[in-house]
Amino acid sequence: MSSTRDIRRRIKSVKNTRQITKAMELVAASKMKKAQQAALAARPYAELMADMLATLSTRVDESFHPFLVQRPVRHRGIILVTTDKGLCGPLNSNLFKLVIEITEPAKFVAIGRKGAQFLARTRRDLLADFQVADRVPFAQIKQVAEFMVKQYLDGGVDTVELIWPRFKNTLIQEPSILPLLPLQNLHESVARLKSGRKPDDRRMLFEPNPAAVFESLLPLYINREIYQHVLDAKASEQSARMVAMKTAKDNATKLIDELTLEYNKARQAAITQEILEIAAAQYTG
What we know:
Layout: H1 4-41, H2 43-57, E1 76-81, H3 91-100, E2 106-111, H4 113-121, E3 125-130, H5 138-154, E4 160-167, E5 173-181, H6 186-194, H7 210-284
Parallel strand pairs: 1-2, 1-4, 2-3
Antiparallel strand pairs: 4-5
Helix pairs in contact: 1-7, 2-6, 2-7, 5-7
């Protein structure tokens, strides 16, 4: 049995760990709430864009835009959204499993330090890596989107896809993959954006013409899609970190209880031994 001094030292160490994990849990909970609010705040813009796309798609020939043209896939272009830091449970490792399952030639862009490290470690074709702040400024996401769109238009990649942790609830973050380019079915994409809202059947006049507006709106659609899902990934990250830290805090509490019980047993055994030694000394005396 360990000495009481060693047990006290371990109890103090575990208490310090519990204090740290509790603080990290509270910080993650606060950041998770802000990330969820940011994702909700972006929805009205997405719904308005869906209305405009739905109206324009009936007035133009979709096949004229390079975003809508199907072509043979020689290299897939994939944006991998991970975290910059760890301590978020299996969130990143679940995303890496999706990457490992990709057997076709692919080129990657990483958002997050963990994803960049994994791609470099596994010797995959990493075109660029970006870091995004917790508040997810749109300007940073726009840089990522424009870089991938340029690769797509120049022929460096033949698809643009997104791998990210989809936020379902606080306990579940589902690793998902979303094809962005080429847009195989614009009407289905618009319907998904509209989230069940009724179509806008008002007569609208577009200047200079519907085709020009449509051509300008599609890049904004891609930017918004990436931005929305990175917001989603940030909410997933903070949720996973909050759950991981809560689990660590609960385990530390359980370990403290076990060590306290062990300490009391060791202390009682030491007291009993001292009493026996005193009694034995008196008897022999």
